[in-house]
Structures are given as C-alpha cells and as structure tokens.
Design brief:
alpha/beta, 7 strands, 319 residues, five-stranded parallel sheet, 42% helix
Length: 319
C-alpha cells in the first residue's frame, strides 16, 4: 500500500520549477499572530504519540516555543464544564506560554463556544483500530521500553490477545475499539455512546474542518515532514531529528504478539470495528490527498513542492 501511495504522489503532483532564485527568496518577518500561535495535539493513546511529542520537547528550546502536557485526573478525556472554561481561558490568555504546544489525552474541544478570540491549531495522529487496541492491550500488561520499571495496571496477566478474544474477555471486546471517533467527536454525550453513527459523522466533520493535519502512525515521518513545511515556526528540523532514530523518539510496547487471522476476523464482524475503521479510512484518504498535493517523488524519496502560486495584475499601479 505504501508504494502505491508513493506512486500516487508521483502521478498526482506535477513538478514545479522554481520561479525565483534562492538568493532572492526572503521569509517575511514573524508576525504577532505567529508568535501567539497555539497548537493542541489531543493525542489518542497508542498511536505513536510519545514518539512525536518527544520531538516537540527536543525542538522547543531551539525553536523558542513552549511545550505543556495536559494531565487530567485518571486520564479522563472529558473535562468538566468548569475545567473547559479554565482551559480555554488559559490557552487563549496565557501570553507567557505563547507560542505554545499543548498535548494530552483529551477529547476535541470547540473553542468557538466560549466567546474567546483566536482558535488554536489542532493536529492529531490516528492508527489502524485493531493495531491500536492490540498495542494498548499488551501495554497495560507489560509496559514499554520508554519507562520499563513502571508497574502497569494489568501487570501479571499473561493472557495473550488471541486468548482474550477467544474467551470473550472485556479488555479485547469490540467496545474497546471505540476511542478514535470520540476523541475527534469531542465533548458531547453522543460522542461517547458506543456505535453512534452521529458521533462518527461529527468526528469526520471535525477532522476536515477543525484540524490542520491528521497523520497516521504508519506514516509518521511523512506527517512530520508536512508539519515542518506548514508550521516551520515550531517544527523546523523535526524531520531530520526523527530520521536520526534517537531512542527518545522511539517507544515500543513490550511482549506484543501479532493477533491471529481468526482474532482479527472476529473483531471485524462487529459494527463498532466497521465504524472505527470507516473513520480511519476517512483519515487515511484525507492524509493521502494532502500529501499528494504537497510533495513529489524522485528516486524513491519524497520532496516538498516549492511555492506554486504567485500574485499578478496588482492594481492600482505603484510608481
């Protein structure tokens, strides 16, 4: 599938010639709006969120922005109404923390409802729903190589994911797949009603209308490359940093065993999987669309396109 995506980028995006020589190109000075920019990454668990966030931590001093972790009690992704008000007020008025990169396991929050000026830029990453659930299942039991000494909630349970599925266990039930949709749907009661078609459609609308970019765990490098192009104020140097393969940018769940075809087939029979997978496929198609119109391929590598628009017929004429 990956080679097909590369091919799509090659065929759908026409190579453009540089209209100006490099020494005539000048970046405009940073505007106050850029310096007030806030990014919110409402990270979905087990989607490579720690790997990506660590890049922001490594870049913040060099690129002069602030990184803040949103730590909610018991990792509850839904805030109380009063906490929503506090959070919106903090994000919009905390000038000492601007420009800022906020990250945490919280559901999407619509800032326009609170009567404030200025909205944050939302980004996120999604993952194949079954792969995400398998990773989370083993993470609860064995942890990962990021903090290997930390005791996890299900530590000591040696049952494999396949054994859980075959016995009808609760930790691998289809209901546990219902996570990426409500994270994008937000702070509405219907978002958290498992299997809600309304929640799925709302999540899709938010993805295309409220998120600058939603990447894929399976395509993390391309996601980072596009972010660096779109938001250089924050992500200059991010692609190279990711490619160096430093340990701080990697996090692998320990003792993870791939699920059997039988386990996958059983989960795929549920309407919950079908809806979560529909959302994932929707996000995948949108990401491929953005990438196909932002890059070209040469010798097997992707390169960002140069600016492909300019201004002309500017009136009135200036002497």
């Amino acid at each position: 599938m990956y080679s097909a995506e590369r091919s799509m980028a090659r065929h759908e995006v026409r190579e453009v010639e540089q209209r100006q020589t490099r020494d005539t190109l000048r970046d405009p000075p940073l505007s106050p709006d850029i310096e007030d920019l806030v990014i919110i990454y409402n990270r979905v668990p087990k989607t490579a969120s720690t790997s990506f966030t660590n890049i922001a931590y490594d870049l913040c001093a060099k690129n002069h922005f602030h990184v803040l972790h949103i730590n909610t009690t018991k990792n509850n992704p839904v805030m109380s109404l009063q906490d929503q008000m506090r959070f919106v007020r903090n994000v919009t008025s905390w000038r000492e923390m601007k420009p800022g990169f906020y990250h945490g396991h919280v559901a999407y929050l619509d800032f326009t409802k609170f009567g404030v000026k200025g909205k944050p830029v939302y980004i996120n990453i999604v993952r194949d729903p079954i792969e995400r659930l398998v990773s989370y299942y083993y993470f609860l039991r064995f942890g990962d190589d990021y903090r290997p000494g930390l005791r996890r909630r299900k530590q000591g349970d040696k049952k494999t994911f396949d054994e859980c599925v075959s016995s009808g266990g609760s930790d691998c039930a289809p209901e546990k797949l219902w996570l990426q949709i409500p994270f994008f749907c937000g702070h509405y009661s219907e978002c958290w009603n498992v299997g809600s078609r309304w929640a799925l459609e709302q999540a899709k609308l938010n993805l295309v209308n409220e998120y600058l970019l939603v990447g894929l765990t399976e395509e993390l490098e391309d996601f980072i490359m596009l972010l660096e192009a779109a938001l250089p104020r924050f992500f200059t140097g991010a692609t190279q940093l990711y490619r160096t393969g430093k340990k701080s940018h990697l996090r692998k769940t320990s003792e993870k065993k791939p699920p059997s075809k039988e386990s996958i087939a059983k989960l795929q029979q549920s309407n919950i999987w079908k809806m979560e997978n529909e959302f994932y496929e929707f996000a995948l198609e949108q990401f491929q669309f953005v990438r196909a119109h932002s890059v070209r391929e040469k010798d097997g590598d992707l390169y960002l396109l140069a600016q492909n628009f300019f201004y002309e017929k500017i009136y009135p004429k200036v002497n």
